[in-house]
Amino acid sequence: MAEEEEDPGFDEDLDDGGNGVDSGQGKRKRLFSKELRCMMYGFGDDQNPYTESVDILEDLVIEFITEMTHKAMSIGRQGRVQVEDIVFLIRKDPRKFARVKDLLTMNEELKKARKAFDEANYGS
What is residue 2's predicted lDDT score, i.e. its pLDDT? Predict the structure, then answer.
């Protein structure tokens, strides 16, 4: 009987997360689970990875995004996040910096292509 009394208290400690991501919100909506499952499969995991693995990975992603956003808000213009702030924060990580640079270049090329397409179709 004494063991049964201790187990519910232990379960309550586990539900609280401890990493500050849930922070009393209870069950929150999973924002990236579909994309993370696809990415995990692309990187060699099973086609249907364990839900717990996806949830842990999503918690890490959200924590990273939150931390980066808070850091970006504290530099540059106070209270605003700009692309330059994110680039400044990752400048010392060569892999992330190269990926962001590639994505920004592709974004500019897509903007130019859309503009050229719109001008060709609708005339100017």
Answer: 45
Phi, psi dihedrals of residue 30, rounded to the nearest 5° = -80, 120
Q: Are 86 and 68 in contact (CB under 8 A)?
A: yes
Phi, psi (deg, nearest 5) at residue 9: -65, -40
Q: Is pLDDT above 70 for 120?
A: yes
**Exposed e or buried b per residue across 38-65, where buried means at least 16 C-beta atoms within 10 angstroms of its C-beta:** eebeeeebeeebeeeebeebbbeebeee
Q: How far apart are CA 6 and CA 26, in angstroms?
A: 22
Report the distance separating Cα 73 and Cα 7, nearest Å: 43
